[in-house]
Each structure stands twice: as structure tokens, then as C-alpha cells.
Specification:
The chain contains five helices and no strands. The longest helix is centred in the N-terminal third of the chain and has 24 residues. The chain starts with a helix and ends in a 9-residue tail after the last helix.
């Protein structure tokens, strides 16, 4: 029972230190994640995102197993892959940047 009380005390001590800037920070990050998820679901880039996540998981497993050469190849593949993603999704990225650069800020949030 004292363990549960200690846990709730720890949680309460941390909640009391939360400020307005912390809440704003969380809200901005949540909004950016939401926009990224909707972008990937609208453009069909979900398969590409799954591939990138799979590559990152493979890289993580390779580093856990200390597979140096596999980790090297996956790391360099990801570097080239980022350039390829920019080339492949250039129209979508251009559209997003045009919306951000437009004079109406409300278009960015739609």
C-alpha cells in the first residue's frame, strides 16, 4: 500500500511542475504528429512509411546483435532513401510548402 502512495505522490509532484509552456509544447507536437499522419494516409505514402519503420527496426536489431556490416548497409540505404523520398514525393512536399508560404495561415491548419 505504501508503494502505491509513493507512486501517486511522485505523479502529483510531477504534475504540479507542469507549466503553460509545457502544455503548449505538447499541443504543438501533437498537432504536427496529427498532420503527418493525415498526410501519409492521404498521399498513399503509408507503405513507404512502413518500409522506413521496418528498415529502422532492422537497423536496431542489427545493432543489438552487433552486426556491423548489416548496420552499415542499412544506414547507408536509409541515407540514400531519404534523398529518394524527397524526389518521389516532390509534388506533395511542394504543395505543403506552398500552403505554408501562403498568406492565409488558416489553410495550413486545414
Amino acid at each position: 500500500m505504501s508503494y502505491i502512495i509513493n507512486v501517486f505522490g511522485f505523479i502529483w509532484d510531477n504534475i504540479r511542475t507542469i507549466g503553460v509552456s509545457d502544455i503548449l509544447d505538447i499541443a504543438v507536437v501533437a498537432f504536427c504528429i496529427y498532420k503527418a499522419v493525415t498526410f501519409f494516409s492521404r498521399t498513399g505514402a503509408g507503405r513507404v512509411l512502413r518500409g522506413v519503420v521496418l528498415m529502422l527496426l532492422l537497423m536496431w536489431v542489427a545493432s543489438l546483435l552487433k552486426l556491423t556490416v548489416v548496420n552499415y548497409f542499412i544506414g547507408h540505404t536509409l541515407q540514400v532513401g531519404i534523398l529518394l523520398l524527397v524526389i518521389v514525393f516532390q509534388p506533395e512536399l511542394r504543395h505543403v510548402l506552398e500552403r505554408v508560404g501562403s498568406s492565409e495561415i488558416s489553410m495550413v491548419f486545414s
